[in-house]
Recover the amino acids of this structure.
Protein backbone atom coordinates (compact mmCIF):
# COMPACT_ATOMS: atom_id res chain seq x y z
CA UNK A 1 0.00 0.00 0.00
CA UNK A 2 2.97 2.33 -0.39
CA UNK A 3 1.79 3.27 -3.90
CA UNK A 4 -1.16 5.38 -2.72
CA UNK A 5 0.89 8.66 -2.59
CA UNK A 6 1.78 8.09 -6.25
CA UNK A 7 -1.90 7.72 -7.10
CA UNK A 8 -2.55 11.15 -5.58
CA UNK A 9 0.14 12.79 -7.74
CA UNK A 10 -0.77 11.19 -11.07
CA UNK A 11 -3.83 13.40 -11.73
CA UNK A 12 -1.64 16.47 -11.23
CA UNK A 13 0.78 15.26 -13.90
CA UNK A 14 -1.92 14.28 -16.39
CA UNK A 15 -2.22 17.80 -17.80
CA UNK A 16 1.51 18.28 -18.34
CA UNK A 17 2.76 18.49 -21.92
CA UNK A 18 6.11 17.67 -23.47
CA UNK A 19 5.90 17.54 -27.26
CA UNK A 20 8.46 17.85 -30.05
CA UNK A 21 8.28 18.18 -33.82
CA UNK A 22 11.15 18.36 -36.32
CA UNK A 23 11.97 19.71 -39.74
CA UNK A 24 14.86 18.51 -41.91
CA UNK A 25 16.23 21.00 -44.42
CA UNK A 26 19.32 21.39 -46.62
CA UNK A 27 19.84 17.64 -46.61
CA UNK A 28 19.53 14.99 -43.92
CA UNK A 29 22.19 16.53 -41.66
CA UNK A 30 20.38 19.83 -40.98
CA UNK A 31 17.41 19.74 -38.63
CA UNK A 32 15.33 22.08 -36.57
CA UNK A 33 13.29 20.71 -33.67
CA UNK A 34 10.72 22.64 -31.66
CA UNK A 35 9.99 21.47 -28.14
CA UNK A 36 6.88 22.57 -26.27
CA UNK A 37 6.79 22.01 -22.52
CA UNK A 38 4.10 22.70 -19.93
CA UNK A 39 5.21 21.64 -16.46
CA UNK A 40 1.91 22.17 -14.63
CA UNK A 41 -1.58 21.66 -16.02
CA UNK A 42 -2.82 24.86 -14.35
CA UNK A 43 -0.14 26.99 -16.03
CA UNK A 44 -1.70 28.67 -19.09
CA UNK A 45 1.72 29.22 -20.72
CA UNK A 46 3.99 26.72 -22.44
CA UNK A 47 7.74 27.03 -22.83
CA UNK A 48 9.13 26.74 -26.36
CA UNK A 49 12.70 25.79 -27.24
CA UNK A 50 14.31 25.25 -30.60
CA UNK A 51 17.13 22.76 -31.18
CA UNK A 52 19.45 23.45 -34.11
CA UNK A 53 21.29 20.41 -35.39
CA UNK A 54 24.09 19.88 -37.91
CA UNK A 55 26.18 16.98 -36.62
CA UNK A 56 28.91 16.85 -35.52
CA UNK A 57 29.49 20.62 -35.31
CA UNK A 58 26.14 22.00 -34.18
CA UNK A 59 23.72 20.79 -31.54
CA UNK A 60 22.28 23.66 -29.52
CA UNK A 61 19.05 24.33 -27.66
CA UNK A 62 17.76 27.90 -27.43
CA UNK A 63 14.69 29.29 -25.73
CA UNK A 64 11.91 31.17 -27.51
CA UNK A 65 9.35 33.28 -25.66
CA UNK A 66 6.65 31.40 -23.75
CA UNK A 67 3.14 31.51 -25.20
CA UNK A 68 -0.38 30.44 -24.25
CA UNK A 69 -1.11 26.85 -25.20
CA UNK A 70 -3.74 27.98 -27.73
CA UNK A 71 -1.16 30.24 -29.42
CA UNK A 72 1.52 27.64 -30.22
CA UNK A 73 2.21 28.59 -33.82
CA UNK A 74 5.77 29.06 -35.14
CA UNK A 75 6.21 29.76 -38.85
CA UNK A 76 9.45 28.75 -40.59
CA UNK A 77 10.58 30.96 -43.47
CA UNK A 78 13.54 30.70 -45.85
CA UNK A 79 14.97 34.03 -47.06
CA UNK A 80 16.26 34.39 -50.60
CA UNK A 81 19.87 33.31 -51.15
CA UNK A 82 22.24 36.21 -50.49
CA UNK A 83 19.68 38.20 -48.44
CA UNK A 84 21.75 37.63 -45.28
CA UNK A 85 25.48 37.09 -44.70
CA UNK A 86 24.96 33.37 -44.23
CA UNK A 87 22.15 30.93 -44.96
CA UNK A 88 19.51 31.18 -42.22
CA UNK A 89 15.94 30.27 -41.51
CA UNK A 90 13.59 32.76 -39.91
CA UNK A 91 11.12 31.75 -37.22
CA UNK A 92 8.03 33.88 -36.74
CA UNK A 93 6.31 33.48 -33.38
CA UNK A 94 3.43 35.93 -33.13
CA UNK A 95 5.02 39.35 -33.66
CA UNK A 96 8.54 38.12 -32.81
CA UNK A 97 11.10 37.01 -35.39
CA UNK A 98 14.23 34.90 -34.84
CA UNK A 99 17.17 34.10 -37.13
CA UNK A 100 18.31 30.47 -36.93
CA UNK A 101 21.65 29.32 -38.29
CA UNK A 102 23.03 25.81 -38.25
CA UNK A 103 26.28 27.15 -39.71
CA UNK A 104 27.28 29.00 -36.55
CA UNK A 105 24.70 27.22 -34.34
CA UNK A 106 23.02 30.42 -33.16
CA UNK A 107 19.54 31.75 -32.56
CA UNK A 108 19.15 35.52 -32.55
CA UNK A 109 16.01 37.60 -32.06
CA UNK A 110 15.37 40.38 -34.58
CA UNK A 111 14.95 43.80 -32.97
CA UNK A 112 12.45 44.74 -35.69
CA UNK A 113 10.57 42.53 -38.17
CA UNK A 114 12.75 41.72 -41.20
CA UNK A 115 11.78 43.47 -44.42
CA UNK A 116 12.08 40.28 -46.46
CA UNK A 117 11.48 37.26 -44.22
CA UNK A 118 11.33 34.89 -47.19
CA UNK A 119 9.20 32.01 -48.37
CA UNK A 120 7.02 30.16 -45.87
CA UNK A 121 8.21 26.54 -45.58
CA UNK A 122 5.65 25.50 -43.00
CA UNK A 123 4.41 25.92 -39.45
CA UNK A 124 4.97 24.19 -36.13
CA UNK A 125 1.53 23.97 -34.53
CA UNK A 126 -0.66 21.90 -32.28
CA UNK A 127 -2.97 19.44 -33.98
CA UNK A 128 -5.15 18.05 -31.25
CA UNK A 129 -2.71 17.17 -28.48
CA UNK A 130 0.32 16.68 -30.77
CA UNK A 131 2.88 19.21 -31.91
CA UNK A 132 3.52 18.86 -35.65
CA UNK A 133 5.43 20.58 -38.41
CA UNK A 134 2.97 21.18 -41.25
CA UNK A 135 4.86 21.86 -44.47
CA UNK A 136 3.54 24.15 -47.17
CA UNK A 137 2.66 22.01 -50.20
CA UNK A 138 5.54 22.02 -52.70
CA UNK A 139 3.21 23.21 -55.47
CA UNK A 140 2.55 26.48 -53.62
CA UNK A 141 6.20 27.32 -52.95
CA UNK A 142 7.46 30.03 -55.27
CA UNK A 143 9.95 28.98 -57.90
CA UNK A 144 13.27 30.84 -58.21
CA UNK A 145 13.05 33.99 -60.27
CA UNK A 146 13.20 33.33 -63.98
CA UNK A 147 15.55 35.25 -66.22
CA UNK A 148 14.20 38.38 -67.84
CA UNK A 149 15.11 37.24 -71.34
CA UNK A 150 12.28 35.92 -73.51
CA UNK A 151 12.05 32.16 -74.08
CA UNK A 152 13.72 30.76 -77.18
CA UNK A 153 11.54 30.04 -80.13
CA UNK A 154 11.08 26.41 -81.00
CA UNK A 155 13.03 25.31 -84.08
CA UNK A 156 10.90 25.29 -87.20
CA UNK A 157 10.59 22.12 -89.18
Amino acid sequence: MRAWPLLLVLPLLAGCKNETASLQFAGPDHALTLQMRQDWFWDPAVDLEVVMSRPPDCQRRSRLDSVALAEVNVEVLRPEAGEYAEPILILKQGTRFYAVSTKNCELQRFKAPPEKPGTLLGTFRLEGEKLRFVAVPASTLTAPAMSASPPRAAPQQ
Observations:
- The longest helix spans residues 4-13.
- Confidence is low (pLDDT under 50) at residues 6-13, 143-157.
- The helical segments are 4-13.
- Residues 15-137 form one domain.
